[in-house]
Amino acid sequence: MIRNLATELSTRDAVAATTLVLLLVAAPFVVGDYLLSVILIILYFAYVGQAWNLMMGIAGQLSLGHALYVGLGAYTAAALFVHFDVPPAIGLFAAMAVAALAGAVIGFLAFRFGISGVYFALLTIAFAEFTRILFSHFDWVGATSGFFLPVENRTSSDLVNLRGTSVMFYYVILTLAAGALVFVRLLAGTRLGYYWRAIREDQIAAQALGINVFRYKMLAVVISAAMTAVGGVFLAFYYNNLFPTDVFGIHRSIEIIVAPIIGGLGTYFGPVVGAFLIGILGEGLTNATEAAGIQTAGIKQLVYGVILLLIIKLVPGGLWPLIARRLGFSIKERRK
Question: How many other β-carbons are positioned within 10 Å of the β-carbon of residue 15?
């Protein structure tokens, strides 16, 4: 499988991919702390965007409440760490299990009773909002007052407890983003990936061919939820504070889905391209509005909405296929 992946890349593709990886690995040595933090957040969106892309872009299941899995992953690992001294290296697996269970419940309710399309998307939003309200009254994890993680080490790297410098966090999220891209690409090349694409294109035809549609849609939801929970764990230990309105809010779900759509839904490099675009644009908007003394609330969401409309109207396939064709890269992952 890995050999097949390597043979798909032309020399130009390999050189471009290697150059990008080297630049990202070398970034902490050539950029300042501020720019490094911007790239770190971009890589975070690339990671969670890849998790959502697996569910929507490849399997064709629209979720608009993916913040649910971010929040469950973040709160589970953080609570285990604060209350029971369980390091996030172990709490990570509990976080993935909790998010996967939540995804399984949503998937079972939806797919067993024939809820699909926009109604499935509304169901995911409902679960995310219900959980936000629940955690807003859950005193064990701070409720609306916030849940705060102790910070005892910012000078050395402790991967087990995810305590340390910003450079350590940068390499952690870089590894996660690169790993997610490779994982999704390899998974999409298996029989499971072909079943997902068949379901995405025509669920009735896929079922007529003998594909267990319920089982494979459930797998897509569970895997995507577990992957997203890992991003939530990273978020919790990077920022060291959690608020229900922040981690479970609809704006968090929107941030997750914007990058894959802009970059190219169903492609493997699309979430990366989209994350870099919205990361740079978002940071630029923040700096510009602060310099002008303008209130920033809602401006990013408005701009993201305008960009989405333009992409859907002018470049329906997303930016990555367009960029790849212009630069002569292979686009074997393009959605048909």
Answer: 11
What contacts 180, CB < 8 A, 6 or more positions away?
Answer: 46, 47, 50, 51, 227
CB atoms within 10 A of CB 233: 28
**Contact assessment for residue 320 and residue 264, using Cβ atoms and an 8 Å cutoff:** yes
The CA-CA-CA angle for residues 119, 102, 258, to 5°, reads 55
Q: What are the domain boundaries of the chain?
A: 2-286+296-327
| Alpha carbon 193 to its chain's center | 19
Confidence of residue 2 (pLDDT cuts 50, 70, 90): very low
Sequence-separated contacts (24+) of 205-214 with Cβ below 8 Å: 213/111, 214/111, 214/112
Q: How far apart (Å, rounded) are the C-alpha atoms in residues 133 and 136?
A: 5
3-state secondary structure of 181: helix
Q: Which residues pair with 251 in a beta bridge?
A: none
Q: Where are the beta strands (DSSP E) in the chain?
A: 147-148, 241-242
Helix (H) / strand (E) element for 283: namely helix 270-292
Q: Which CATH architecture has domain 2-286+296-327?
A: Orthogonal Bundle (1.10)
- Residue 147 φ/ψ, nearest 5 degrees: -115, 120
pLDDT of residue 230: 98
d(CA 237, CA 247): 13
pLDDT at 272: 94
Distance, C-alpha 266 to centroid of its chain: 14
Helix locations, 54-86, DSSP H: 67-84
Nearest to 248 by CA among 169, 87, 157, 134: 134
Torsion 236-241-244-247 (CA) sign: negative
Decide if 73 contacts 228 (C-beta within 8 A): yes
Q: What is the pLDDT of residues 274-290, one digit of tens each?
A: 999 988 988 888 787 77
Instruction: Check if the beta carbon of residue 72 is closer than 8 Å to that of residue 102.
Output: yes
